[in-house]
Amino acid sequence: MASTGGVVRRRGPGAGTSSTSPPEDENDASRVSSPVPKNYDKAPETSYTGGENGHKIAFDPRDMQESEERNKQPKLTLMEEVLLLGLKDKQGYLSFWNDNISYALRGCIVIELAFRGRVSMQKDSSRRRFPLADRVIEVIDDSLTGEVLLDEALKMMKSSEKMSVSSWIDLMSGETWNLMKIGYQLKQVRERLAKGLVDKGILRTEKRNFLLFDMATHPVADGGAKDEIRRRVRNVLTNRTVVLPPSQFLPEDMEFRYIRTIAMVCAAYAANVLENALATLGHEARERAFAQVDELLAEYSQWPFGKRAGGSQGIGANLGQVITEEINKSKDKELQLEVVAACLSVFTRLDSLL
């Protein structure tokens, strides 16, 4: 039946060409209706914003999203903090005898992705039958973080089959006999992290001669960053009441400030670089600090986290309370924290894996 309405707005390419188009017959087979636009996934179009003198400035909305992401995150990632602790300040290189740091850095990548809300433990009630490190993780947000190593790992996790925490750390470290999966190895992680710290103004690049060859080294250019990390480590491992002052490396409004710091301390311990932050302590104080790390690993390598009433020396007596408060503020992110606990459980058996 023909429509008896007056003005009909056409859809499609012809829209707006005529304000008095004749009515369309719904049953007229000779007419071909304009196709309905399909919602294809396309890259965001260039947007414009008003600048000075009235000129328009073009920008990519993805760049704006990346800037917002960076503003919500600390200046340094967990991997960069651990690497920075291991570097010799003036020489600019790691100890040649450190075999653990490469593996620990891959674990830090998984932890950082969990803190940033990109991966979480697969939501499956049957997962509790398996040890933490053997539970499967999945990508819940594949948006880029702006950190090259994190984005590379995220793309691999998104495009591959779902695997466990320990499997991913093994594969990214190259610890596999399966030739089909050797491509998952992240290469030159330490060098790439060091170059990232150079870009952030924390390190500088020099060339040093080692007998038969020249090697690029990265001495510390901004000692404030490393000093802040050392203070934070000593704060957690030596004080009865732990209070973390806000800084550009640990903003006050950042999520999971205390859990992130504990993860950094445990990762540095697994990477055999923690002693560099405790060099100014006496022998007995260092021994107590290492004993405290053992307790932190035991408590936070399980999920839910262990109930803490203060360490054997009364160190960090308030940690249990502040971490409970952090978890209660983000109840919807418990599966992400479960990934953190799983990585710490891998760190507890690092010596046997290498």
Automatic annotation (TrEMBL):
It comes from the Eukaryota. Its main location: Golgi. GO terms for cellular component: cytosol; Golgi cisterna membrane; Golgi membrane; trans-Golgi network. Belongs to the GOLPH3/VPS74 family. Residues 1-73 are annotated as: Disordered. Residues 53-72 have a biased composition (Basic and acidic residues). It is a peripheral membrane protein. This is Vacuolar protein sorting-associated protein 74. Keywords: Golgi apparatus, Lipid-binding, Membrane. Pfam families: GPP34. InterPro entries: GPP34-like, GPP34-like_sf. PANTHER family: GOLGI PHOSPHOPROTEIN 3 HOMOLOG SAURON (PTHR12704:SF2), TRANS-GOLGI PROTEIN GMX33 (PTHR12704). One of its GO terms (biological process) is protein localization to Golgi apparatus. GO terms for molecular function: phosphatidylinositol-4-phosphate binding. Phosphatidylinositol-4-phosphate-binding protein that links Golgi membranes to the cytoskeleton and may participate in the tensile force required for vesicle budding from the Golgi. Thereby, may play a role in Golgi membrane trafficking and could indirectly give its flattened shape to the Golgi apparatus. May also bind to the coatomer to regulate Golgi membrane trafficking. May play a role in anterograde transport from the Golgi to the plasma membrane and regulate secretion. It is found in: Golgi apparatus, Golgi stack membrane.
